Amino acid sequence: MTPPAGHLNAATGRLQAAQREPFVDLYGSDTVVVPGDEVKAKVLAFYRHDYERAGSKSGPWTPPDLPDPGFPQTGMVAILFDEEDGLGFHPDFDLLQEVFADPVLIARGRYREVVSGYLHGDDVSPRILQRLAAKDPGKASEIFRFRSPC
């Protein structure tokens, strides 16, 4: 018999909360921003911290064989451990921060491309945009109202 969906959602939420706690403990926030080539090291540090915090019950730490996440070596990636969405990776976060600080940048192709990717990407949570928009809703409105002259 399959448990009801609400039961699974509650269990998933508890598991994510338990995993999020050591991330925040290690990094002091649920978000850490790093160059793309440092993402794998940050994730491994988090996994190790979580393992050791749980008491290293399976013996000494052995790092998992993680694939290269494939983020560009230039640009910054936000690693966000959201309460609802879990662990997420947000490339070109530096460009997102810049455009939300100065909305006139949305007229430039690269900034527009990055924002559009976050708005229309199938595998992208809106959470990171919501957080940036909440800092200054007026500036966010300028970004979202922009229409390309093309």
Low-confidence stretches: 1-8
Number of helices: 6
Instruction: Give the strand order, joined by hyphens, for the main sheet.
Output: 1-2-3
Our Rg estimate from Cα atoms comes to 18 Å
Helix and strand string, N-terminal first?
A: HEHEEHHHH
Secondary structure category:
alpha+beta
* Terminal residue distance: 56 Å
Gist of the model:
This protein has 150 residues and is of the alpha+beta class. The chain has helices spanning 5-27, 39-53, 93-101, 109-120, 127-135, 137-145; strands at 31-35, 76-82, 86-91.
Plain-language structure description:
It is a single chain. With 150 residues, the protein is of the alpha+beta class. It is built from six helices and three strands; from the N terminus they run αβαββαααα. A hairpin with a 3-residue loop joins β2 and β3. α5 (127-135) packs across α6 (137-145). It starts with a helix and ends in a 5-residue tail after the last helix.
